[in-house]
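Per your request, structure below.
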């Protein structure tokens, strides 16, 4: 309808131009024939009235048609559509609104709140596909943790939905360690590693006998330091004469095998006496030592040592 109206407007302009040209020619011939001038003028006025009536009729019909047509321009769903971090901005604004709305609800102490594994900045960036700034994510996750402290019985459902995008898919705090049983012979099993060495140890109540690969402790380890390292868990807990040890060790050298055996014996001892798990961990018997020998690099004498520089 708008294009049709524009066409009629152009035709009307052409008609007005033709009328003005006719009037000028009629004035030049006014002395010859005055009747012609009156004819042109009358015809031009009648022609203008016809154009006006036709345009009014088209306007009325087009107005009725436009009342029925919807607004066809697509609008963004979110105000953050034109920003670089649309999804994060929406989540951040929602968390801020929830914090203002439910900030006065009763909370539980931080130690009694449900432990939740939150996404790190890198994990959240990978999940939403946006390069979120560290400062903005830190401010957002602070509000999320504050909302998580609301009492579980009073926490609204919209708060649960608002903080859900910041939770990991798997909550590592809900994992339970697999219990190590004691077999029908009264033995407990433990595995330890150090460097490239691995040790498996079996503990059973006895008189303090130790066999390592079928050998006694003195035959298996020649150094006194290695003998003390192998039985460090039993020595610190004062259980040297209470358990018998039968172990298999392989790989690496004597130092690595002794420290791997110490970890295996400590794990097996914690199965017999779970109350000793905390003291054994404080003594460093249950912690895996990740240190290894650094490999040699090309152009170096060893891992770090460079060849001696000679001027000439």
């Amino acid at each position: 309808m708008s294009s049709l109206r524009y066409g009629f407007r152009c035709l009307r302009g052409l008609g007005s131009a033709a009328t003005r040209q006719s009037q000028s020619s009629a004035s030049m011939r006014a002395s010859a024939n005055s009747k012609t001038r009156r004819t042109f003028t009358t015809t031009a006025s009648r022609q203008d009235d016809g154009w006006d009536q036709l345009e009014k009729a088209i306007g009325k019909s087009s107005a009725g048609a436009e009342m029925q047509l919807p607004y066809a321009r697509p609008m963004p769903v979110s105000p953050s559509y034109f920003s670089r971090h649309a999804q994060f901005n929406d989540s951040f604004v929602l968390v801020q609104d929830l914090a203002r709305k439910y900030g006065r609800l009763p909370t539980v102490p931080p130690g009694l709140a449900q432990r939740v594994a939150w996404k790190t900045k890198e994990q959240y960036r990978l999940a939403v596909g946006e390069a979120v700034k560290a400062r903005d994510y830190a401010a957002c996750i602070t509000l999320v943790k504050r909302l998580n402290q609301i009492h579980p019985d009073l926490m609204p459902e919209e708060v649960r939905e608002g903080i859900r995008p910041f939770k990991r898919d798997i909550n590592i705090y809900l994992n339970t360690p697999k219990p190590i049983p004691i077999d029908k012979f009264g033995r407990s099993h433990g595995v330890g590693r150090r460097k490239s060495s691995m040790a498996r140890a079996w503990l059973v109540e006895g008189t303090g006998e130790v066999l390592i690969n079928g050998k006694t402790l003195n035959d298996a380890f020649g150094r006194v330091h290695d003998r003390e390292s192998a039985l460090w868990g039993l020595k610190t807990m004062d259980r040297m004469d209470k358990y018998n040890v039968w172990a298999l060790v392989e790989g690496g050298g004597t130092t690595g095998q002794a420290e791997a055996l110490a970890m295996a014996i400590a794990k097996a001892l914690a199965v017999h006496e779970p109350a000793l798990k905390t003291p054994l961990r404080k003594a460093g018997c249950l912690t895996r030592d990740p240190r290894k020998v650094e490999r040699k690099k090309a152009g170096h004498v060893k891992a770090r040592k460079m060849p001696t520089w000679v001027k000439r």
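Residues 34-68 form the longest helix (35 residues).

Regards,
D.
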